[in-house]
Design goal:
It contains no helices and eleven strands. Strand 4 and strand 5 form a beta hairpin. Helix content is 0%, strand content 51%. The strands form two sheets. Strands 2, 4, 5, 6, 9, 10 and 11 form a seven-stranded mixed β-sheet that branches. It has a four-stranded antiparallel β-sheet with strand order 1-3-8-7, with no helix packed on it.
Length: 120
């Protein structure tokens, strides 16, 4: 099994940037498709981005395309989410997740989440 821990969240002004990290332990991230999800206050969890085992393929939710970039470092067992041009509606708890299949349909492992707050 893999354990995931997110970091990098915080408070940022609208238009600013943050980079989230997801560190893994217990197993190499090479074995997993990785995804980022978010859950705004009072709303359902939504898909943000995913990246294939090698990093060759990425997908994004419509609301973040062109602003967010997912990447991975399999040597250091870390996945990143670079978030630029942040908007107040990007505020949420952000979770990273791991799936053993590509394309990923079910993510079996989740981190505890990191809070992102965007002030207007």
């Amino acid at each position: 099994q893999v354990q995931l821990v997110e970091s990098g969240g915080g408070l940022v002004q609208a238009g600013g940037s943050l980079r989230l990290s997801c560190g893994a332990s217990g197993r190499s991230l090479r074995s997993y498709v990785m995804g980022w999800f978010r859950q705004p206050p009072g709303k359902e969890r939504e898909f943000v981005a995913s990246i294939s085992f090698s990093g060759a393929h990425t997908t994004y939710g419509d609301s973040v395309k062109g602003r967010f970039t997912i990447s991975r470092d399999n040597v250091n067992n870390t996945v990143y989410l670079q978030m630029n041009s942040l908007k107040p509606e990007d505020a949420a708890v952000y979770y990273c997740a791991a799936s053993g299949e590509f394309p990923a349909r079910v993510y079996g492992y989740w981190g505890q989440g990191t809070q992102v707050t965007v002030s207007s």
